[in-house]
């Protein structure tokens, strides 16, 4: 799959997720090496009003979505791949007023499970806010998701 078509599929995937739309998440980059999303900082996602640190639930959503979308980078065609397990190790709080980037890659793909790893960071990928590992179940190409989810990912017809 070309980088352009992968990027377009990733943007369609993200636009089909209402909670990601509400958080104003965007695709930054998608290629064979992985997926990068951005979560803009806003007062709505603050967990600690005294410091402006982002709530752990918003970070979890960013990382679960990024890891799940990294499966698009590793599979030849779209498959619904729900989360089996997600482990996040938090290292330090976010800083206020800076966007948060999530990057994930698939490091092993089996017949039934996809294994991912990644991190969240703000201005320096070498200083992660947290690290993540996740596993995702392969349901196969015949499963399209609820409410025409799979159809929403298809490229629009001219």
Automatic annotation (TrEMBL):
NCBIfam families, per database record: unchar_dom_1
Domain Thioesterase: 52-127
Signal sequence extent: none
GO molecular function, one term: 1,4-dihydroxy-2-naphthoyl-CoA thioesterase activity
GO-annotated cellular components: cytosol
InterPro entries, A to Z: HotDog_dom_sf, PAAI_dom, Thioestr_dom
Domain of life of the native organism: Bacteria
CDD domains for this protein: PaaI_thioesterase
The entry's keywords: Hydrolase
Pfam family, one: 4HBT
SUPFAM superfamilies in the cross-refs: Thioesterase/thiol ester dehydrase-isomerase (SSF54637)
Protein name: PaaI family thioesterase
């Amino acid at each position: 799959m070309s980088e352009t078509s992968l990027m377009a599929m990733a943007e369609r995937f993200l636009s089909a997720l209402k909670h990601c739309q509400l958080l104003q998440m965007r695709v930054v980059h998608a290629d064979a090496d992985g997926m990068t999303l951005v979560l803009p900082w806003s007062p709505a996602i603050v967990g600690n009003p005294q410091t402006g640190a982002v709530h752990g639930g918003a970070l979890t959503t960013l990382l679960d979505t990024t890891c799940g979308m990294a499966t698009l980078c590793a599979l030849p065609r779209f498959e619904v791949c729900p989360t089996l397990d997600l482990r996040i190790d938090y290292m330090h709080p976010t800083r206020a007023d800076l966007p948060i980037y999530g990057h994930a890659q698939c490091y092993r793909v089996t017949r039934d499970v996809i294994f991912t790893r990644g991190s969240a960071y703000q201005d320096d990928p070498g200083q992660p806010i947290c690290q993540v590992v996740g596993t995702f179940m392969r349901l196969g190409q015949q499963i399209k998701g609820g409410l025409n989810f799979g159809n929403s990912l298809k490229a629009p017809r001219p």
